[in-house]
C-alpha cells in the first residue's frame, strides 16, 4: 500500500529535505517540506488527554484558554476496569480529542510492565501482567487510531524505572524479555496495528534503546514486521551514525537547537562524508510518509480525514464510565458500603486528596483539564443540600511554588537522580517534617470525625510521588498519613478509607480498617464516580491489575537489590516477579493481583474446556486455541459486573515456570439472580514459554491446569486439559 507513491515522493526530495523530515523542528513538531506539500507531524502527550499547547521552541505554554481538554482516566485506571470495550472507548475518546486539537500523533499509551511498586511512572502504565496489558492496550490503540491519528506506544523497551532514566542499563535474559517485557508491544504492533512506537530513554544490554539494533532492527522491524514510525523519546538520541544505522526514524528532543540535533546537520554531514548511506535516510522517510498516508495527512484521502472534537458530552460520559468501573473495593468487612443517601445526615470528609486536583501533575502526562471533579465536590454535587458535609485536610501538604523561569521538561534530562529532593518541582516531605502543623490538623479532623454520621478519609499519593523522572523513595504513604489514619480508626473504626495512587502503598493499619477503596487517577469525573460507588448507584467492579504486597521489603526487586542500583539493573528475578513470585514463594500479600470486591456475590460453575480452531481454516486437527467456558451467577440482591480471570499452569514443565499465569479474562454484567455462560478463548501459543535454545516460543504437549478465578488467589474452579 502506498509504496509507489512513497517512492515517487522520495525521488523528488533533496537530502536536506529528507533530513528535515526526520528530526524535531519544534518540541512537538517534525520538519515539513512545503515545496512538496509534506506537512509536519504534530504530536502531543499523552495518556490522560491531550496536553496543553506549548510555544514551538520553548517549554512555556502558549497560555490561551482554547486548549482545555477532557482529563481521561490514567492507563492504570483503564486497566483496573478489566473491560476491553471501555479500553476501546477510552482510546476512541483520546484519539478524537487529539484530532480535535489538530494532532497527528498522540504519545500514548504507556504500556511498560509495572515491575516494581516504586517506579514513578507506574500510574501511566497498565499492569504487572503482560496478558492484561495485551488485552486492554490493543483495543485502546485501535480506538485511538480510528480517528486518523497515530497512537505512539511507549517506552520501548524494558523502561521500568525513572531514576537515572537516561543512563540506566537494563539486563534481562532473553526468556524473560520475550515472555514478559515485549509481549504488550508485540500485541499492539501485530494485532493493534499501532502506527508509531517510542524508543525509551534507558539502555538495554549496554546500548541506548534509541539506537538499539537488537530491539529496533531485529525484533521490531524484522521479527514483527513493523513498518510505522519509530520515534525517540524526547532527548533519547545519543549519536548520529549509530542511530542512523538503527531503525529509529524520528529524533525529538527537549532543546530548541533543532538544526544541531543528531538527525539534523550532523547527519547531512555524515551522509556527505560517506559515514551514512542515503538509503538509510530514505527508509526512515518512507516510514514517515507511510504513516502520513495511513492517517490521511497526505494523499488522495486527505479530504476524508476525520476532524475529531474535544470536550464533547460523549467524552465526559466515556471518562465517567471508565472511572466508575476502575474503582477497586478492597475491603467492606462490615458491609458499611454502600451508604444510604437518605439515612446519612452528616459526613466528615477528611484528607487532602479529597480536595486535590491531579490533572496538572505527573510530568508529560499533565493535562490542562476543562474541569476535574475531586472527591469532595463530587460528594457534595451528588448529595445536594440536605446532607451536612464537613471538610478537614487531616494532614499537611506543603505547597512549593514553581520558579517561573523553570520548566520541568526543559530540565528533565539533567535532573535524573535518585535524590528526589533535587527536583525543584517536587514537594516531598519527610516523616514528621510538619509535625507541628499536623498536630493541629489531626486534632481538628478527629474532632469532626467524632460526631459525624459517617467518616470518609481520602488520602494516598499525588503527583509529587507518582511522577515522571523520579521513583518513589519508599512504599509508604507520605505526609504522615499513617498516623492520622490510625488515630481516626481509633476514634471511628467505621471510617471509610479511600486511597488514590498509581501503585501499591504499605498500609500498616490495614487490620483495623473495615472499609477500603483504591482509586487510580480516574480523570475528570473521578469525584462523581466515587460518590456513585460509595452510595451504591454503581456497584464496584474494578480489580487490581497488580499485586499489593504488605511491605516493600516483600518484593523480589527489593530482595535482589535490582531496582534502585545507579548504573545497571539486572532483572535477576526472571519471570518471577509480582504474583508469579509471591505464588512461587508462598508469600502472603495484602491484596493479590486481580482482586476486587463487589456489593454482590458471584458463583462460578460448570467449567468446560474445548480445543477449537480460531484460524477459520477448518483443517482437521487445527485446534489452535482453548475455549474455556463456565457459568457465572449473580447470587446477591443487586446487579453487578464480574471479571472472570482464566489462569493456566503447565503441570510438568521442562523449565521452571510460574504455578499459573493469566491467559485471558472477560467482564460480564449480571442482574441480581442472573446466570450467564462466559467464554474465554485462549490461543495455545499463549500457553507456551520461550525456549532460549531454539529462540522461539514452545507450547509443550502434556497436561495443563486451567483455573477460573475471581483473583489470582481466589480459585473458583479448575480442570485439567491435555494438549
Ligand atoms: C517522556 C515521554 C513524552 C515526551 C514528550 C518524555 O520526557 O518520557 O513519555 O512523551 O517526554 O513530552
Question: Explain this structure to me?
Answer:
The longest helix has 17 residues, at 84-100. The protein is 26% helix and 20% strand. It is of the alpha/beta class and 723 residues long. The protein has 19 helices and 26 strands. Residues 45-46, 107, 154, 233-234, 364, 412 line the site of beta-D-glucopyranose. Beta-D-glucopyranose is lined by residues 45-46, 107, 154, 233-234, 364, 412.
Percent helix, as a range, is 25-40%
Number of strands: 26
How widely separated are the two ends? 40 Å
Strand content: 15-25%
Strand line-up across the major sheet = 11-16-15-14-12-13
Radius of gyration: 25 Å
Arithmetic mean pLDDT: 95
Molecular shape: globular
Structural class: alpha/beta
**Biggest sheet statistics:** 6 strands, mixed
pLDDT below 50 for ≥5 consecutive residues: which ranges?
none
Provide keyphrases for this structure.
six-stranded mixed β-sheet; 20% strand; 19 helices; 723 residues; binds beta-D-glucopyranose; five-stranded parallel β-sheet; alpha/beta
Topology of this protein?
Layout: H1 3-12, H2 15-21, E1 24-26, E2 29-30, E3 43-44, H3 75-81, H4 84-100, E4 105-106, H5 130-145, E5 150-156, E6 169-171, H6 174-181, H7 183-190, E7 196-199, E8 203-204, E9 207-208, H8 213-223, E10 229-232, H9 241-245, H10 265-272, H11 278-294, H12 313-326, E11 328-332, E12 346-350, H13 375-383, E13 388-392, H14 408-411, H15 435-451, E14 454-460, H16 481-491, E15 496-500, E16 515-519, H17 526-534, H18 556-559, E17 568-570, H19 578-585, E18 602-612, E19 625-634, E20 640-650, E21 661-670, E22 675-683, E23 689-691, E24 696-698, E25 703-711, E26 714-722
Parallel strand pairs: 3-4, 4-5, 5-7, 6-8, 6-17, 7-10, 12-13, 12-14, 14-15, 15-16
Antiparallel strand pairs: 1-2, 8-9, 11-16, 18-19, 19-22, 20-21, 20-25, 23-24, 25-26
The structure holds beta-D-glucopyranose.
